[in-house]
Amino acid sequence: MIKDILVHLDGGDRDPLRIGAALNLAKRFGSRLTGLFARSENMPAALVARRASDAYEAAAKHSEEQFQAAAATSGVTVRWWRLAHGETGHVLHETLVASRFHDLVVLGQHHEGKDAPEELVEHIILQSGRPALVLPAVGTYPTIGTNVLVAWNGGREAARALHDAIPLVAGAENVEILTVRGQPAGKPGEGVPLPPLSIHDHLAVHGVAVTREVLAGEDIGVMDLLLSRAFDQGADLLVMGAHGGYHLPFFKGAGTRHILKHMTLPVLMAH
Q1: What percent of the chain has pLDDT over 70?
Q2: Are 271 and 125 in contact (CB under 8 A)?
Q3: Do the beta carbons of residue 36 and residue 98 sit within 8 Å?
Q4: pTM for this structure?
Q5: Could you give the 3-state DSSP secondary structure of residue 104?
Q6: Per residue in 198-250, pLDDT tens?
Q7: What are phi and psi of 153, to 5 degrees?
Q8: Rounded Cα distance, 200 and 215, in Å
Q9: Residue-level pLDDT at 154
């Protein structure tokens, strides 16, 4: 269940879109929505002193006004939080702690000029223990979860992300599973055979109908395939485990960072 949502705000020009998307989700699930203002300090003196500069205070006030105005006619129960100052360690730690007290965290993709630590999104995904819905730095997203692409390799991270996303994908018009085809675990007849495992069957119990499954060989660039497939299908949500094994020919976590850098649609990640 998604009953308590946190949306991160930093005073940037993408905040209104993030607020709008978070409010729509809160209305859909009957959730409470908390707006958390947390951004990097730009004034060296205030940064050293670990206090808010006048610019930081002005940005926080503007963000609160923006958040409250958007929520005023939504019918959603909301609350407003802000951090005391913008020292990087403070922003990372306090945003992380706040995330752990919510069912879903809504974040924005990092981009040039964004007043938040570059590592914030990945830090929350890896350390919060909560699913993170990351919204892209371009475009708009009027719907989230009507046309879904799921990256599935049967691993722990993929399982965590998929099950965290079930409330979002329940009732979706289209759910497509992209599976990485691995090598068989043993020779035919070796050991005790597993029961017939099917992700389609499991999702059907939750009322989620999978319309298509695509098998990708290990020699394919899986992250680029995911993004290409999402674009071709017009998906409005990508679900994937973060820092999981997707048979990438380079170090663990590179695939997650690739998606976070090149994403063009909302992505739900969990670790």
Answers
A1: 89
A2: yes
A3: yes
A4: 0.89
A5: strand
A6: 888 889 899 888 887 777 655 457 788 889 889 999 999 999 999 865 444 44
A7: -130, 10
A8: 14
A9: 86
Contacts of 216 (CB under 8 A, 6+ apart): 178, 179, 180, 181, 222, 225
Element (H, E) at 214: strand 212-216
Angle, helices 222-233/254-262, rounded to nearest 10 degrees: 30
CA 212 from chain centre, in angstroms, equals 23
Q: In what order do the strands lie in the sheet with 132-135?
A: 78-82, 32-37, 4-9, 104-108, 132-135, 267-270, 237-241, 147-152, 174-180, 212-216
Q: Which helix (H) or strand (E) holds 80?
A: strand 78-82
What are residue 239's phi and psi, to 5 degrees?
A: -115, 125
Contacts of 132 (CB under 8 A, 6+ apart): 99, 104, 105, 106, 107, 121, 124, 125, 268, 269, 270
Q: Which domains does the chain have, with CATH numbers?
A: 4-135 (3.40.50.620), 147-270 (3.40.50.620)
